[in-house]
Structures are given as C-alpha cells and as structure tokens.
Hints:
The chain is of the alpha+beta class. It has helices at 13-22, 70-81; strands at 2-8, 29-35, 42-46, 49-53, 56-65, 89-95. Helix 1 (13-22) runs antiparallel to helix 2.
Amino acid sequence: MKKIEAIIKPFKMDDVREALSEIGVTGMTVSEVKGFGRQKGHTELYRGAEYMVDFLPKVKLEIVIATEDVERCVNTILETAQTGKIGDGKIFITDVERVIRIRTGEENQEAI
C-alpha cells in the first residue's frame, strides 16, 4: 500500500476529487493548509498598510491506495491539478506499513 499526499491549489480541489472518483478512488482526507515554496509569498494592502503574506493557502489531499493503483492516481492528479503556473503544488508518495479500520478491526487492503 502507498500513501499519496498532494498539495494543490484550492480552486482545483473539486476537479481533482471528481477525477479521482471516476477512476475508483473511494476515500481521501482533505485539509486546508498554508505554505510556500518557489512561489514565495506576496504583498497585500490592509487598511492602507502593505504587508507580506508568507504562507499561501493550499489544499492537501491524503489517499491510501493499493500499490498497483499509484501511477493511475498520480497521473489523474497531475492532469487535473496542473495549471502550468508556479505554485501548482507537489505530490509525495510513501509506503504504508499497516492500516487498521477502527470500527471492525479489519487490516490493510480490507481496511481501505
């Protein structure tokens, strides 16, 4: 099993969720996060004063799936979330050692 963590632009969330549903992804965790990379921050004007916004709003998706489904899932996220502009985000893929469904005690593939 693998865990895919994708940091994407917030306005792309609905499109990515729909595309993942179409390929059979049945569950994910979504968090509103803030961060920056090469995009850096930007300046904003508030009550006449200019200030620097260092952390930009993003959405973080977390999906645990079977290893054989990783490439299809990653490609779907890439195709759907990409705008071609700086700040499109990142995808991280890590191994998942064990999963347990709390309600039933099912483990691993049965738990996802």
